[in-house]
Design goal:
With about 150 residues, the chain is mainly alpha-helical. It has a domain of about 100 residues. About 65% of the residues lie in helices and about 10% in strands. The protein contains five helices and two strands, in the order H-H-H-H-H-E-E. A two-stranded antiparallel ribbon has the order 1-2. Helix 2 packs antiparallel against helix 5 and helix 4 packs antiparallel against helix 5.
């Protein structure tokens, strides 16, 4: 539980101390990615990155759950052991270390997902022309404005 809190504090510090003036914050993509990793990238029409980010997050989450289960079962083996305590404890420690590594990869992929959705990648400002046609009331004047 402590590692979740520490990662949350680090995330908040990154958000607070990121200079806002040098990036354009994409809030729509950010809240989507916070709910479902990859959704913000998909919203920004960066589909390959959406699959990569979402798939990476899902893979890390799956591996973390598998390694957590493995570490839990090795701890039970150690708790119920009647002999060979040292080897069972070493097995548990190695499984726990591997679980921690995968957990940090999982949280890192989530943070990357949020930073990419908010600040990096494709911008939502699409270069589509805007045409404005104005007609005066007396129908004698017609004009248009074409811009990006």
């Amino acid at each position: 539980m402590v590692k979740y809190f520490i990662l949350f504090i680090i995330f908040l510090l990154i958000i607070i101390f990121t200079p806002q003036h040098s990036y354009s914050l994409n809030g729509e993509a950010l809240w989507r990615s916070a709910i479902l990793p990859g959704w913000g990238q998909y919203y920004k029409q960066d589909v390959p990155k959406a699959y990569f980010v979402g798939g990476g997050f899902l893979a890390c989450m799956t591996f973390d759950l598998v390694f957590w289960s493995s570490a839990s079962s090795k701890y039970l083996d150690y708790s119920n052991a009647t002999s060979d305590y040292d080897s069972k404890w070493d097995d548990y420690e190695s499984a726990k270390s591997l679980n921690n590594i995968v957990f940090y990869l999982w949280m890192g992929s989530y943070l990357y997902n949020l930073v990419d959705a908010a600040f990096l990648g494709k911008s939502m400002v699409l270069n589509q022309p805007k045409i404005n046609i104005q007609v005066a009331n007396n129908n004698t004047k017609l004009g248009y404005n074409y811009s990006y």
